[in-house]
User: What shape does this take?
Amino acid sequence: MASLLEALQIELIENIVIFLELCDIASLRLTSRNIEDKASQGCFTAFFKDKDVELKTRRLQEMVRITSQGRLGYLLQDCAISGVAQKETTATDESAEHLRLLTEVFRNLKQRSPKGELSSLGLRVVARVEGPDGELIEPHEFCSWRAVWNTASHTFNVAMAALSESQLPVENHLDIFDGL
Assistant: This one.
């Protein structure tokens, strides 16, 4: 027997969803398959059209999962790839893994998105330092231009190689470091 909530029309569920945060929409969608279908329309799909993805292995793994078959990540239209500049450290080079994962994301989008393309792609560099709890946070000041330039180079090389390997077209706008 369907609950009173499940008996509501799609339009009424959509009016409820409009006022919810993403985590609350996700919880609502878990209540039943009927509600999942009704709550997965309209404004919920807008959360998947525009994404800023840090060029970090864990973030790219999440994007592979989100863009895989049966997920709403195929709706992605406007994507920003943000390289994360940190002060000089002995970080391991993850270029090959970043390239593999980003290429998989782009291939998923080419195969599953309605038009087989991105509307726009932007490349960015963000600065981060390790906070007291070990998390990466935005610094008050950041003075390692070498790290910024190395990150910009890494971000550009990985993104362009992934686009080339996946053959994913960018239809309208390619923004490389705000036009610099």
In short: Helices lie at 4-7, 10-17, 22-29, 33-39, 42-46, 57-67, 95-112, 145-166. The radius of gyration is 19 Å. The longest strand covers residues 118-127.
